[in-house]
Amino acid sequence: MNHISSKSLVFISTLCAILSGCAPKNSSGWDEEGKLQGMISVSGAFALYPLVVLWSEEFKTIHPNVRFNISAGGAGKGIADALSGMVDVGLVSRDIHEQEYERGAYVINVAKDAVVGTVNSQNPNMDYILKRGIKQEELKRIFVGGNLSKWNQIDLSFSSDDLHVYVRSDAAGAAETWASFLGQSQEGLKGIGIFGDPGIAQAIQKNPMAIGFNNINYVYDLKTRKQAAGIRVIPLDLNNDGVIGPDEDFYDDIDSLTHAVATGRYPSPPARNLSFLFKGKPQDVVLVEFIKFVLTKEAQSILLKNGYTPLNEDWLREELAKLN
Question: 289-296 long-range contacts, Cβ below 8 Å, gap at least 24?
Answer without folding.
Answer: 289/36, 289/63, 290/40, 290/55, 290/59, 290/66, 291/108, 291/323, 292/320, 292/323, 293/55, 293/58, 293/59, 293/62, 294/55, 294/110, 295/108, 295/110, 295/319, 295/320
